[in-house]
Write a structure and sequence with these properties.
The complex is a heterodimer of chains A (202) and B (265). Chain A has helices at residues 2-24, 84-97, 121-130, 144-153, 193-196, and strands spanning 53-56, 61-63, 71-77, 107-113, 137-141, 158-160, 166-168, 171-175, 181-186. By secondary structure, chain A is of the alpha+beta class. In chain A, the strands form 2 sheets. A 7-stranded mixed sheet of chain A has the order 2-1-5-4-3-8-9, sandwiched between helices. Chain A starts with a helix and ends in a 6-residue tail after the last helix. In chain A, 39% of the residues are buried. By secondary structure, chain B is α+β, with helices and mostly antiparallel strands. Chain B is built from 7 helices and 7 strands. Chain B starts with a helix and ends with a strand. Classes of the chains: A alpha+beta (202), B alpha+beta (265). At the A-B interface, helix 1, helix 4 and strand 7 of A face helix 1, helix 3, helix 6 and helix 7 of B.
């Protein structure tokens, strides 16, 4: 009894600590609610400042700023993922159905793989085919360090497991045309409204 | 943060902790380490949690800075890379507190802290500095492996030392690097000076295919009955993991700095 009480106590204290720490920074973390920047040049909070090179499912090399002017809906996954990744794709497809007619040319869906080792462009292409993804979908492979950096920016947690799979959180991030974060939702099967409702002002 | 630690004082001093990790390995150091670094022999390490099946992490040999990066050292980096100066830093890569204890872009302002650890730096900044040095940030496993190594200048168990440190407020002026505890791997200040960024601090997720982003919180904080922690009494480790879990890469904190690592070939 005493032991479980101690655990309980520590859990409460730890949450309290996390709460306090996050409170310290509350003034600096409202990127989600910031107004979208329509500017064509790179905004100060644009992800297009990242200079790393990625490979898509067609084997092309590109930088993220290639998406400038588009409205990307981004998530991270890996193709050998059995459970959550197909569901994330399903969530994105749900969003795809709700893209307004006049934004259809601009909205793109970007899946970035955690699996730098195994998710080669060929594998990504195979996955795109299996999941019946059209040409609005961009599947990206990058080196381990780029992927880690992007995960920080997209607020995704992940860890490679000894068996080569990845444990990871799930999040969908919407970028504006300048590459700044316009909206973000976390979890699987969540209401995509925060994303969908933003399409019209981007 | 000082106040924060005080708040935990009573709670933590009353509790006691047992070692969380068993660090094994041998100490052969035939190849000289780069200046300011020491070779960390690899070994097995019982991760604080994710330990439901008695899983141990393998840590490969690597080099680690014996001390945290100082203000003076960081100034050299900023001078060589003006885009990381206070006024030029991108909002994407650091919050408004970035280097707030410095007087200007290229001016630390107080010579007393030249050799104190640099703090108020984001993960991106720490990562960029490491790259500039042709080094990298240590991984979480590497850091924990070294951090759980017994001390040479203090007989108390590491956890006890940490809790005593956590219970004290952060001093207004951080002491110089190398002034606190030294461990058996000849690494200084893993505890007792500052918290430190690790490369994959955002890797704390519980299960493969986590069903929601709150998986970590659920497992860490609420499901005490089915708890996966290696040692439920190591409150110091709880604190570290909770702290890391609360961070975002652009955050800056006045007692959070870093040290660099390097692959061992």
């Amino acid at each position: 009894m005493k032991r479980s009480f101690n655990i309980y106590l520590i859990a409460v204290l730890t949450i309290f600590l996390a709460f306090l720490l996050s409170g310290c920074n509350s003034g600096n973390r409202d990127e989600k609610s910031s107004t979208p920047k329509q500017k064509v040049q790179i905004a100060d909070e644009s992800l297009y400042q990242l200079e790393g090179e990625w490979h898509n499912q067609h084997g092309d090399t590109l930088q993220l700023n290639k998406l400038k002017g588009k409205i990307p809906v981004m998530t991270m996954m890996f193709t050998r993922c059995d459970f959550s990744c197909p569901r994330v794709v399903a969530d994105l497809k749900k969003i795809e159905k709700q893209v307004p007619e006049d934004k259809k040319d601009q909205v793109v869906f970007v899946l970035v793989s955690f699996d730098s080792e195994r998710d080669t462009p060929d594998k990504l292409k195979e996955f795109a085919k299996k999941m019946k993804l059209n040409d609005k979908w961009l599947l990206l492979h990058g080196d381990e360090e780029q992927v880690r950096e992007l995960s920080m920016l997209l607020d995704v947690k992940y860890k490679k497991q000894p068996d080569g799979s990845f444990s990871h959180s799930n999040g969908i991030t919407l970028l504006d045309t300048g590459g700044s974060i316009a909206a973000h939702v976390e979890g699987l099967g969540v209401d995509p409204k925060p994303i969908v409702s933003r399409f019209n002002d981007l | 943060m000082g106040i924060l630690k005080n708040r935990f004082l009573i709670a933590f001093v009353l509790l006691f902790a047992l070692p969380v990790a068993t660090v094994t390995g041998n100490n052969s150091t035939k190849n000289p380490a780069p200046a300011g670094m020491v070779k960390i022999p690899g070994g097995q390490y019982s991760m604080f949690f994710e330990n439901k099946a008695g899983k141990t992490m393998k840590v490969k040999p690597f080099y680690l800075d014996t001390r945290a990066v100082t203000n003076a050292e960081y100034l050299e980096f900023v001078k060589a890379n003006p885009k990381w100066s206070k006024s030029k830093i991108s909002k994407l890569f650091a919050d408004a507190g970035y280097l707030k204890h410095w007087k200007g872009d290229y001016n630390i302002g107080d010579a007393k802290i030249n050799h104190s650890p640099v703090t108020n730096v984001s993960w991106y900044a720490a990562n960029a500095y490491s790259k500039w040095k042709n080094k990298r940030l240590p991984t979480l496993s590497e850091w924990e492996f070294v951090g759980n190594t017994p001390l040479v200048n203090d007989k108390r168990p590491v956890e006890k030392v940490i809790l005593d440190w956590y219970s004290k407020p952060t001093p207004a002026t951080l002491p110089v690097v190398g002034s606190t505890f030294k461990n058996k791997l000849n690494v200084f200040d893993m505890h007792g000076l500052i918290w430190e960024w690790v490369y994959d601090f955002n890797s704390v997720v519980m299960n493969s295919d986590s069903r929601s982003n709150s998986a970590i919180q659920r497992d860490l904080f609420c499901a005490s009955g089915s708890f996966g922690a290696a040692n439920k009494e190591d409150y110091a480790a709880f604190m570290r993991f909770a702290f890391r879990g609360s961070l975002k890469a652009k955050y800056t904190v006045s007692n959070l700095g870093f040290r660099c690592a390097l692959d061992f070939n």
